[in-house]
Design brief:
The protein is an alpha/beta fold. Strand 1, helix 2 and strand 2 form a beta-alpha-beta unit.
């Protein structure tokens, strides 16, 4: 089992950094997830997935402490939500990447548990490459396993906030955050055609209290640990396959073809 960086002494950290080719940074959010999931859902899922990836990679990977806060302004109408500003999150990511680069690790995989962070991560990754010479890869479970999620949903749409998919993942990865009873289905509104999740084609900021009275989208009552296990295993498998190529000096040519299977 991989030992997180924060659990090591500085002597042990130096030895681990000498062996490692990349660092893994879990990133999430502290925000509402309806009446049935804890506020730490996103960072808990991201941390659990990152730990499994680090375990599979062994000495190749250095598991960094999780960053719990993210961009959650669209959830602030619901109690408990804490949010950063985009520039704050970008700066935090850049500082972590720079700290790793100063110690000889110029490749970082961000395992992200919150869709609202994606734009900031992309910008930070571009700036890291331009200004620091470091490569930053962004892993979001809903993207990595998007094809499997579509099959799981069987035409019911691709909700991914406190829905049956995210709740299933939580049941597998961090069951202590799941509270019973699970709420039933909630359909997306009709007043925002082409702009509301899960099939948005037009990009416009929508606050979650405009979309749902409960904070959840989809049908959490359909969640099962078995579905979460299948999805988590797939995300870890594909991320590990990518990471092995990402760690190679010849990346991107070294990326294993099985990632696309």
């Amino acid at each position: 089992m991989s030992i997180p960086l924060a659990d090591r002494t500085t002597v042990e950290a130096a030895e681990a950094i000498e062996r490692a080719a990349l660092a893994i940074l879990p990133l999430g959010a502290i925000e509402q997830h309806g009446p049935h999931l804890a506020l730490r859902t996103d960072i808990s899922i991201a941390t659990a997935l990152a730990s499994r990836v680090a375990d599979a990679l062994g000495d190749t990977a250095l598991l960094l402490p999780p960053m719990p806060y993210g961009l959650s302004e669209h959830h602030t109408a619901f109690a408990g939500t804490v949010t950063l500003r985009p520039e704050t999150l970008i700066r935090l990511i850049l500082d972590v990447v720079e700290s790793m680069a100063a110690q000889g690790i110029d490749r970082v995989i961000i395992v992200n548990g919150h869709g609202g962070n994606m734009d900031a991560i992309r910008l930070a990754a571009r700036q890291s490459r331009r200004d620091l010479g470091s490569r930053v890869a962004h892993v979001m479970w809903a993207q990595v396993a998007g094809d499997a999620i579509a099959e799981e949903m069987a035409g019911r749409g691709m909700h991914n906030h406190a829905c049956e998919i995210e709740t299933s993942l939580a049941m597998e990865l961090c069951p202590e955050i799941v509270h019973e009873p699970l709420p039933g289905a909630w359909l997306e509104p009709e007043f925002a055609p082409h702009a509301a999740p899960p099939t948005a084609r037009i990009d416009v900021p929508l606050w979650f209290d405009e979309l749902t009275p409960t904070g959840a989208l989809g049908d959490p009552s359909r969640a099962t640990p078995e579905r979460g296990r299948r999805l988590a295993d797939l995300v870890v498998e594909r991320t590990v396959a990518f990471a092995r190529g990402f760690a190679a000096p010849s990346f991107p040519l070294a990326a294993p073809p099985e990632f696309d299977a």
